[in-house]
Design brief:
526 residues; mainly beta; five-stranded antiparallel beta sheet; four-stranded mixed beta sheet; 2% helix; 26% strand
Length: 526
């Protein structure tokens, strides 16, 4: 910028030694009127003069400012005439002034009218403290520009330090920055990491994979979990505060809920392998319809009739063959077996220990099917045990039958334990009663031994007495035909009388006596 007259006069009076340096001098350096030459990027060497506390650039080795053109105009409000001075030589007091450029360096000026600068004027280090700059086509700065706490508005803003495709964000002190971990292309925003956020609306993940997800709350609706791949995991709680429970939670599937080969539908649970239900507590099955059934894939095998408190077990080969276990009033329990084709529905108790019948009443009853004929086992408070036959109103026979040849009656001593056969019934074609130990028949009335054929008394295998059907009684070894022994019937008491024939009741000594013979014997009387 060219100097006016006052500025040139001030410059002529100053003759101080200039200083040299790089970049614009600091306002705190030097005094008014000092000159400094500075190396400025883009402008070369710039000459500064300090005026009114500020350093003003007055010349440059780079783009020099053009020659100053002063236009003066005056006008009349009524005539509309005007005149102007376009050559500085025509200005008053400047006739001898032939400088090509002028610098305003001492006096502040206010320009109140519009000014047009033609060509490409260069303003070296201007200090614009107000107003507006409009319709400029290019603005190049040599250092950082701070517009303060004001708005900078433009249709587009290009930052050479940023990379295409990256999202711009404010860095330290508000510096616009970008990062390769946050990009935007077409309609896709890509971020390597996203911190905690709150979504204000629905998010569509478009079937994209989500890994290492920790969902701590909310709801998962209409979703297939593990449709493409599955992994093991534990639920702390779903809809409850107790670990491992699902409470107040609905798993809603249109057709089924599938876990590997396990399929749960609205009405069935099926599995392609073994299925185990393992409950640490109780397992309750509630059938309001009345039946819980278990089948082998085709036929019902177990039928729990919860309405009639009955369990039916069917044969898998013939479902008409079955066993029914029923509980009725007072806890009465019935086991009934059925063979729909015959009467072969046996019931077997096969215990790997004792079979114990412990009735709280006295009797254990055994009846023929359809009647009350049978036997009762009657238990007393004492160790006595009774076997009773009959139907309650009339007595019946008690028959002991064996397909073997012996029925034994044994004594038992628990302290041993010791078991001894005391009476043995031989049940072959010649029945026999054997006793171990002394044997005694003690009757409170008559004792009658009634034999259809002969009657024998034998001791130690020797026949001692024989009574035949003819009324004869034979003594001792009559079968041997060797009667070498004495045969006597003697009465030794003075009040006893042994007689034959009519009893005369006389006190005498009648004796029938045989004595030994060495060779032969004869039958009495002969």
């Amino acid at each position: 910028m060219a100097l006016n007259r006052e500025e040139r006069k001030l410059l002529h009076h100053k003759s101080r030694k200039p200083t040299f340096g790089v970049n614009k001098p600091d306002p705190n350096e030097g005094k008014n009127g000092d000159i400094s030459f500075r190396k400025i990027q883009g402008s070369g060497t710039v000459q500064y003069i300090k005026d009114n506390g500020n350093w003003l650039a007055i010349s440059s080795s780079g783009n020099l400012p053009p020659q100053r053109q002063i236009i003066y105009s005056s006008s009349s409000s009524s005539s509309g005439t005007s005149s102007s001075v376009i050559n500085h030589g025509d200005l008053l007091g400047l006739g001898d002034d032939n400088h090509t450029q002028y610098v305003h360096n001492t006096i502040a000026r206010t320009i109140t009218a519009d000014h047009n600068f033609t060509g490409t004027p260069v303003f070296a280090s201007p200090d614009i403290n107000g107003g507006t700059i409009d319709a400029i086509t290019s603005l190049t700065v040599a250092n950082n520009v701070d517009i303060g706490s004001h708005d900078l508005r433009a249709a587009t803003l290009t930052a050479d330090g940023l990379t295409s495709g990256r999202v711009v964000f404010a860095g330290t002190n508000g510096v616009l920055s970008d990062d390769s971990d946050l990009t935007f292309s077409s309609d896709t925003l890509t971020a390597t990491k996203i911190g905690a956020f709150t979504a204000a609306g629905a998010i569509n993940f478009d079937n994209q994979d989500m890994t290492n997800v920790d969902i701590d709350s909310g709801a998962i609706d209409g979703t297939t979990i593990g449709a493409n791949s599955q992994a093991a995991g534990d639920f702390t709680a779903i809809g409850a505060v107790a670990a491992g429970t699902i409470v107040g939670t609905t798993i809603d599937a249109t057709t089924d809920f599938t876990i590997d080969g396990l399929i749960i539908t609205a009405d069935t649970i099926t599995n392609d392998a073994d299925l185990t239900i393992d409950g640490a507590g109780d397992i309750a099955l509630s059938a309001d319809g009345g039946n819980i059934t278990m089948d082998d894939g085709t036929n019902t095998i177990f039928d729990f009739d919860v309405d009639n408190t009955k369990l039916t077990i069917h044969d898998d080969q013939d479902t008409g063959d079955k066993v029914e276990m029923t509980v009725s009033q007072h806890g009465a329990f019935t086991i009934a077996s059925t063979d729909d084709d015959a009467t072969a529905a046996d019931i077997t108790l096969d215990a790997d220990g004792d079979v114990i019948l412990d009735p709280h009443s006295d009797e254990v009853k055994i009846f023929k099917q359809g009647s009350d004929h049978g036997a009762k086992l009657i238990v007393r408070d004492s160790p006595a045990f009774i076997i009773h036959s009959g139907n309650g109103s009339s007595e019946g026979d008690l028959i002991l039958r064996t397909e073997g040849n012996t029925i034994d009656m044994k004594s038992y001593v628990a302290s041993g334990p010791t078991e001894t056969t005391r009476i043995s019934f031989k049940l072959d074609s010649t029945p026999e009663l054997d006793a171990t130990g002394d044997f005694k028949i003690d009757g409170s009335g008559d004792i009658t031994l009634d034999s259809v054929d002969d009657f024998y008394v034998i001791t130690n295998t020797n026949q001692i007495i024989k009574a035949n059907t003819s009324g004869n009684i034979f003594f001792h070894a009559y079968l041997d035909n060797l009667n070498y022994n004495n045969y006597k019937l003697n009465v030794f008491g003075d009040t006893y009388h042994f007689t034959t024939g009519q009893a005369d009741f006389k006190q005498n000594y009648t004796i029938v006596s045989f004595f030994d013979e060495t060779v032969t014997h004869e039958t009495y009387p002969s």
